[in-house]
Amino acid sequence: MTTTVIQRKLNEEYCRNANSIKAMVDSGLTHIPSDFILPQNMQPRFTKSDKSRDVPTIDLSLVNDESERPRIATAVTEAAKEWGVFKVVGHGISATLRKKLIQVIREFFDLPLSDKLQFLGPSGDTSTPRYGRTRRGKTGHQSWRDQFHHRTPPLDFEELQSWPEKPETYRDTILEWTKEIQKVTDTVFSLLADAYDLQPRRLQNLMGTAESGMEATMLAAYYPPCPQPDVASGIVAHTDPVGMVVNFEDVPGLEVQKDGTWILVAPDPESLIILTGDAMEIITNGRCKSCEHRVLLKEKQDRVSALVLMKPSLEAKLCVAPEFITSGPPSRFMGMNMTYREYLQTFRRKCSDATVDS
Ligand SMILES: [Fe+2]
């Protein structure tokens, strides 16, 4: 068969299994459809990377010790400023729960496609649980990933009942996980507030309104093995529009951009990976960096990751908080004054690589 015929057959297979990359891979691909092949300047084989470096790691275990807390708060603010990403250990989440989480996510994606397709819907809609693919990137290319996402508590009974019944441990495990992650993000926000000399919940309050506070979304991501990992991406390079993201993964693959080089976040069975997003960058007038990131693929190995996205309320005003306005030349964030909803509409138009952004 000629290359053109092979590619046409691949693209037909892709259309048949458009809602699941896993289903496409399970059908036995040796090459990938053209929609997934990135331009050369975005392909992992042509972009500069450094696997000898790692992002900062911060131990939270002594966060309630008054003599240690200022040092930890400084470490968090420096990492947020320099990197926009850091790992945390000493977070108090048990190895048992971490293992259960990865297992239940794997079990979910291993369900028959028909079970997952009952949750099919657009990726931006989080009012009910949604299964499907990531939106096309701003270059029009597809990311090699299936995903499932929904809001996290507090939720009314009806919304909780809309969570999957299979695997049967899904609801309890995700409830426990998101409760623990809420505690960790509260700690990180309060450490940042300490270092910036703000009230403990000031940052969360800036991302809420009188009517509604910050929201959170649980996003489970599945990256199937990819026959051509050097030319595609699990998720195309992007920043997240949200306030903060907590990532836990079983196989390394997340890369972050630092000084023009891609840095692989090193494998670690204990660490949570925390990224600060656009909303925090804007509010803090650049004191927190919005971390650009992407996901590498493997030819023979799949990967799952569990993301909790801490998001501003849709009606919250996204602008530099008065506490971060300085007397120097105005920064690029100073003209910003729109609701988070309006920002998402702009962001989606300009850069639709966002994972889940509403
Ligand atoms: Fe992201």
UniProtKB/TrEMBL annotation:
Record key words, sorted: Iron, Metal-binding, Oxidoreductase
Pfam families: 2OG-FeII_Oxy, DIOX_N
MF terms in GO: metal ion binding; oxidoreductase activity
Chain segments carrying region Disordered: 122-148
UniProt domain Fe2OG dioxygenase: residue ranges: 214-312
Family, similarity comment: Belongs to the iron/ascorbate-dependent oxidoreductase family.
Full protein name: Fe2OG dioxygenase domain-containing protein
Source organism (scientific name): Marchantia polymorpha (Common liverwort)
